[in-house]
Write a structure and sequence with these properties.
There is one protein chain. By secondary structure, the chain is mainly α. About 75% of the residues lie in helices and about 0% in strands. It is built from 5 helices and no strands. The longest helix is centred in the first third of the chain and has 31 residues. The protein is elongated. About 10% of the residues are buried.
């Protein structure tokens, strides 16, 4: 686990590599979250969790900022439109 204290001991090149690795990890995690939200939204599971909307679930349960929640929901819904219809 990376801690702030452990970062002070890294060389410049190690710190650059660490930042790049964490940025890649963050992009991967965001993509997985958006993909998960596609299915979560399709099933309307936020209602079962006691939330009136996916936005409320993202901000109050997942503790995403309003901006982050909006962006991820928009991405999930755009991605869902590209998926084949599951009702057929």
């Amino acid at each position: 686990m990376t801690t702030i204290a452990s970062l002070t001991h890294l060389s410049d090149d190690q710190l650059i590599a660490c930042i790049r690795r964490h940025a890649e990890d963050e992009r991967r995690a965001t993509a997985i979250l958006v993909a998960s939200l596609v299915e979560f939204d399709a099933r309307r599971l936020y209602l079962r969790q006691g939330n009136p909307s996916l936005f409320t679930y993202c901000t109050q349960v997942l503790h995403l900022s309003e901006h982050a929640a909006y962006g991820r929901i928009e991405a999930a819904r755009a991605a869902r439109k590209k998926l084949p219809d599951r009702t057929a």
